[in-house]
Amino acid sequence: MNRIFYFYPHCYLKSTKKELLVYDTTNGKYIYLKNNPLSVHDRKTILQGFISDSDSCCHFIEQCKNKTFGYYIDIAKVFPFMYSRQLDFITSLEKERKALGYNLQSYTNSLLREVTILLNNSLDILSVEMFLQLEYPQYNNDNVDLDYILQQLSYFPYLESITLAGESDKKTLCKFLEYTNKRKIQIIHRVLFDVFNITTSLELMDKYSNYYLEVLVDNSTEATKLKLLNNNHIWVKAIVSKTNDLEKLHRIDSIVYLPILSTNQDNTKLLHQMLLSEDEILLTRKTIYECQLADYINPSIYGHLTIDYDGSVSCLGHRIKSVYEQDLAFIVNQWIKDDNCMWYYTRRKKETCKECALQSLCPPISIYEELGLFKCPCKYK
Asked: What does the alpha-carbon distance between residue 301 and residue 269 come to, in Å, rounded to a whole number?
């Protein structure tokens, strides 16, 4: 009679050529081995939720048993049913493409949920790479055709949120808010503190329930002025480019810090605050669903695109096409099936991370990595 060790469904299992992780999503207990003791066959079966009891794995299995990660099953002749531990939500795209030879726009249009539109910016205060990290337009005075962009967005029925980043006049904002309010789309206006008009913003908040303001401040902003922003529809976010910025800004209540790095300065101290140790990553509490999801998509950007003031469509700093070259619906439809689609760019695909068993516990791939500012959340170089 053979015997297997079966892992509880709430245990997340990750096995690479080099490393092995068993993570109990209910209590945070784990076994993390830098030298994977499993054979090629056992690496495949553990991803299905079980491992055969053998002399080569007896110590590992005993560790799992002691941590109550699962239990033994005696097998006579018939192998018990094992449900799939993998998510199948992405395969519908592949099934449709296989059946029809292509994906219908009516289906791919349903995937776009969030859009950031980059507007004007009269302040040339940061480098291009810094503005990219903030998802804010670089210095420009171009006329952004919001009417055309609204027309393009009308084809996406499940759009939930639009971020307008940069400067805009009241008339244009009102027109945009009138349309999106009818569709119950949340509007977030991201703007630098030095150029936004508090009076206009408060008037718009009174008139439109879907309007929110995201004010970007830095270490030169006086804390007393920020008291004007005491409103549930206003979020204050602080640009941090040096560690001493934290000392100046920590006095502001309910603030979110946005670290930005530059290739033209020494980022060592700030990176020390940003990067995570393996222990910190292992202490991250995630559900089994969140762990499985991270294997397939980048949850921080999935369903999100950026449209620049010149019409360029991008994701995580990577340009795709321009809405003045092709309709946005067509761009999304074609990009979805591209191997370089950033929505599906996960740590298991990234060369630096694909042999690490902590991929799904680690934060998703970020703009910092795509700009080459650091290698991954636990490594600078």
From this structure: 27
pLDDT in tens, 291-321: 999 999 999 999 999 999 999 999 999 999 9
Give 315-355 pLDDT, tens digit per residue. Answer: 999 999 999 999 999 999 999 888 889 999 999 999 999 99
Of 357 and 74, the structure prediction assigns the larger pLDDT to: 357
Going edge to edge, which strands form the sheet with 304-307?
255-259, 234-240, 211-217, 186-192, 161-165, 114-118, 304-307, 312-315, 318-322
CA distances from 301 to 111, 117, 229, 253, 306 (A): 12, 15, 28, 28, 10
Average pLDDT, the chain: 89
Cβ neighbours of residue 215 closer than 8 Å, sequence gap 6 or more: 191, 192, 193, 196, 229, 234, 235, 236, 237
Select from 128, 135, 253, 114 the least CA-distant residue to 192.
135
Cα(320)–Cα(91) distance, integer angstroms: 23
Separation between Cα atoms, residue 190 and residue 176, nearest integer Å: 15
Distance CA 118, CA 258 (A): 18
Cα 253 to chain centroid, rounded = 26
Helical segments of the chain, H only: 40-46, 58-66, 91-100, 105-108, 128-134, 146-153, 170-182, 198-207, 243-249, 268-274, 278-282, 288-296, 328-336, 367-370
Here the tokens at position 92 are: 């519908």
Rounded Cα gap, residues 76 and 19, in angstroms: 32
Could you count the other beta carbons within 10 Å of the beta carbon of residue 79? 11
Contacts of 262 (CB under 8 A, 6+ apart): 127, 129, 130, 241
Tell me the residue type at 250: H
Helix axis angle, 146-153 to 328-336, nearest 10°: 50
